[in-house]
Amino acid sequence: MSRTSGTSGLPPFDPTDPLGVEELLDPEDLAVRDTMRAWAADRVLPHVAEWYERGELPGVRELARELGALGALGMSLSGYGCAGASAVQYGLACLELEAADSGVRSLVSVQGSLAMYAIHRFGSEEQKREWLPRMASGEVIGCFGLTEPDHGSDPAGMRTYARRDGEDWLLTGRKMWITNGSVAGIAVVWARTEDGVRGFVVPTSSAGFSAPEIKHKWSLRASVTSELVLDEVRLPGDAVLPEAVGLRGPLSCLSHARYGIVWGSMGAARASFEAALDYARTREQFGKPIGGFQLTQAKLADMAVELHKGILLAHHLGRRMDQRRLRPEQVSFGKLNNVREAIAICREARTILGANGISLDYPVMRHATNLESVLTYEGTTEMHQLVLGKALTGIEAFRGD
């Protein structure tokens, strides 16, 4: 009896997809992925190092309209001009956009998963019809005002408030670290009221509203980040989101946005890993490519394991979301793991590139610094650890008393 090779008849090993995760994708999934990858390669990658160095995202409104034409804005929402894509397809789009730059993915996430999602889930029919089609097309950019200068991880302590003045609302307060703020045409702002926390749809042309851009960032430099200042902004009575009362509203929006980060962070990790792998194959030291040394291969192997475990986790969570079975604690699991591992991958990739790793000629340091923001926003590492800790033990530890 002859003995044949144990790999006889098996597909070849693919260094770009060592677990064969692509086999989980159907033709529509692949079409979304390839479309977003091609757009990012054409419209972002040739320019993003310069944008990052200059600390700006020029032509953001044009980019938004192009992304709208691709169906990328609010793509997992249905109706009102939205694409109605699956959660997995939305995740694939986030991965490809963040493989180009976290700032571009943030533009899409804030537009769709925060501002549009809030209106789609909690808004009136009139609010949905007025805003969602224009936001889906990229004609109107949205932002999401929850974080405040003194209240990030503890939104229950927010100071922004809205009070009744006849039939109108008067909205006063400040929001901080708001992506898209100074280019937005509409802001979804959360504020205290006599009835609890409520969400408001605020046209940014309203008297008393301003959005000064935040400068001097060392992360997410190719992204618009602003403060929102609301000085007795007068809004009509129907500006409030009718279906959201209490923190349940904004927190559910954050959970939707965190899901996109689970995927997006793996895009940044993939781009950094691929840069390191290519460099290891071509950079020669001591008479041979550095990829031929055991220590370098150990680094690449560990990076590949964490990268593709993270992608597989993202797929699993996406399938659960499509089945309406995804719990917030599971989203916290994904964000905690994938962002933390993505940063570790970027840092290891930097060591393989040596001094070249700090150069904008390569994407690694740009991704590493961007991920420092991704690690913090939509819930810090510590907050997600506490979410999981409570789920595991049944004991809340958010407060020390």
Automatic annotation (TrEMBL):
One of its GO terms (molecular function) is glutaryl-CoA dehydrogenase activity. Its cofactor is FAD. Residues 246-392 form the Acyl-CoA dehydrogenase/oxidase C-terminal domain. Residues 1-20 are annotated as: Disordered. Residues 27-139 form the Acyl-CoA dehydrogenase/oxidase N-terminal domain. Keywords: FAD, Flavoprotein, Oxidoreductase, Transit peptide. Coiled coil: none annotated. The keyword Transit peptide applies. GO terms for biological process: fatty acid beta-oxidation using acyl-CoA dehydrogenase; fatty-acyl-CoA biosynthetic process. InterPro entries: Acyl-CoA_Oxase/DH_mid-dom, Acyl-CoA_Oxase/DH_mid-dom_sf, AcylCo_DH-like_C, AcylCo_DH/oxidase_C, AcylCoA_DH/ox_N, AcylCoA_DH/ox_N_sf, AcylCoA_DH/oxidase_NM_dom_sf, Glutaryl-CoA_DH_mitochondrial. Belongs to the acyl-CoA dehydrogenase family. This is Acyl-CoA dehydrogenase. It comes from Streptomyces oceani.
